[in-house]
Amino acid sequence: MIRLGRLLAVFIMVVLYFMFVENTHRYYLTDSREAARYFLFGGFHSLVFWVGLIIFGSIIPAVILFSKKGREVPWVVFSSALVAFGVLCERYIIVIPGQTHPPSLFPDMKIISSLVEEGITTYSIGFYEVLQALGVLGIIGLIFVFGLKAFKFLPEKAKDDKDSVVNLKSD
Q: Which residues contact 95 (CB under 8 A, 6 or more apart)?
């Protein structure tokens, strides 16, 4: 559990870095500067971003996990719960501001027809698509089997109900 807590702390730092890069990039482009200001400083969702996601969902868990308290299981569990709360805040931030300030998908263009005017079409899966899906599943299965063999994830010995050791390896 302690090693997983250390790994969680590293992942928190990586996510903070990516959020910094994303928001810096958004603010750097002149076309999206107004949206960046709105996302970061405009309304209740910005409070959820800064307090919920950044402070309670990232910084406090990282400080706990990198400190001496991070070597105790209850603190690792508490930090994990804070990170889960931060993830819920992030989901809120993704959905709500995106609905209130939608991105311009076609800048400098006017949409003259839509799906409503054209109607809804039907689609059925073709034979080649089924073969492709089966091929992908087959490749994943082969990679899994080779991974089991190469990394030796399968146990070689086990204990039965009578505590006698049973050799599982077949030569």
A: none
